[in-house]
Amino acid sequence: MTSTSHPLRHLLAAAAALLLCASAGAVVRLPAVLSDHAVLQRAASVPVWGWADPQEAVTVEFGKQSASTRAGADGRWRVALDLRQAASAPAVLHVRGAANAIAVDDVLVGEVWLASGQSNMEKPLGEKSGQKPIPNHEQEIAAADYPDIRLFKVLRKKAGQPLDDVNGVWERCAPSSIGRINFSAAAYFFGRRLHQQLRAPVGLIDATWGGTRIEPWTPSASGTGNSSALFNGMIAGLAPHALRGAIWYQGESNIDHTDLSRYTGQMQALIEGWRRHWGQPDLPFYYAQVAPHFYHIVRRQTVLDPQAAPRLWEAQADAARIPHTGMIVTTDLVDDLYDIHPRDKQTVGLRLANLALNQTYGRHDIAAFGPAFRALAIDGKQAVLSFDHADGLAARDGKPLTWFDIAGADGRYFAGEATVRDGKVVVTSPHVPAPVAVRFGWDEAAQPNLINGAGLPAVPFRSTRESLPQ
Fold it and tell me: Which of 67, 171, 227, 349 lies deepest, with the highest CB count within 10 Å?
């Protein structure tokens, strides 16, 4: 009698298959962001979570800590670890369920930051087709040997509802890895600066997609919908992995919007939405103001006005009023106004890191802000401008100050002559005998030279928005 004809063998095979399915269903599993080489945030309550069978007992061990729980009716489970005093050496995260055990190897405890946005945050340390590489990219890659910096590249994915997980793996930062995974240059330089200053491990999560608007990165009010496709597919599944903060570089794709003042509210919706999703209401959020570029020439079908970019800059600057946020300026980092991807991502990462060091880590000895307009006073034919962060006001190149325009009550702006006097900037024009308003850097191509003593560029602004024709 052959094996294929015996009915008992069929029954045994079916029973074995059922047992296999049952045991597979009971396997405890973890999200992608909790995998070998991960970095956990040094904090009092750090989530470790995953999935198992409903009511299955799960135990988590890390270092000297142990925590147990049971999966809920939906199979989800979660525990919290206190990692404030965790050792700096790599350790193993052990997770055990009823049917299996997981050992997550080479886990560090340090500072975890999420980097997101469009192509200027996405721009890699190595070469990318259609883009000029960053300066000295080959040397930078060769020097990127930092085993205590870990990189997690989220693969591109859109979704109609928030996903439980993302696609990606952690990598040790090394010349062999950072170029291979096309990791964000700005995020890398940000993390390298933090690592060197804090002398602590750093975990960087790169969730970027070139050419994207802000809307799909923003959680929708109902939590579902294609309008939030990138949040759903690339951000939602990272939570609740504890973060120290987030960095953001986006806005170029929103410049074609007719009402650019809306961008401030859109940023607030994104920031507050992410904070709610993580359960971290004070999550630091630092971002780059988009750089000068010939938008109305290169993108003339969608951007008609060379003042569209300044209106976005204004909206971005307004968003810095949201608590626990900050903005860096990039007007001095462009070597080709026809290229929407400025090559100098070293300075972008440095400035974002200095902002985090100053604001989040209390390193107030590190300068983080350029001059920001505070007030306008009129003294006869002179418009006198006061600035915050104004110590050491000067011209970067030692030449006369550039990109100051001055207007009278008729709203007609003329190029002004501007000089630094007693820590303020005085602007005049023979065409404006009775000034009432000043604007600075108010053109998509503006690369002004006003800096403070720390060498940081001034924020573009206009002193009035509504009372004069613009």
Answer: 349
CA distance 153 to 134: 19
Task: Report CA 65 to chain centroid distance, whole Å.
Answer: 32
Give the angle 216-221-222 at the CA atoms, nearest 5°: 105
Kindly report, residue by residue over 188-218, the tens digit of the pLDDT: 999 999 999 999 999 999 999 999 999 999 9
Tell if the pTM clears 0.90, that is, is over it: yes
Q: pLDDT tens digits for 370-417?
A: 999 999 999 999 999 999 999 999 999 999 999 999 999 999 999 999
pLDDT tens digits, one per residue of 265-299: 999 999 999 999 999 999 999 999 999 999 999 98
CB atoms within 10 A of CB 176: 11
Kindly give the interhelix angle for 262-278 and 308-319, rounded to the nearest 10 degrees: 40
* Cα 121 from Cα 286, distance rounded (Å): 12
6: phi > 0 → left, psi -120 to 50 → alpha, else beta; which? beta
Q: Are 173 and 152 in contact (CB under 8 A)?
A: no
Q: Who's near 151: CB < 8 A, 6+ residues apart?
A: 170, 171, 172, 173, 177, 178, 181, 183, 188, 204, 206
Q: How far is CA 114 from CA 111, 147, 242, in A?
A: 10, 19, 10
Tokens, residue 165: 């997980």
Distance CA 187, CA 249 (A): 10
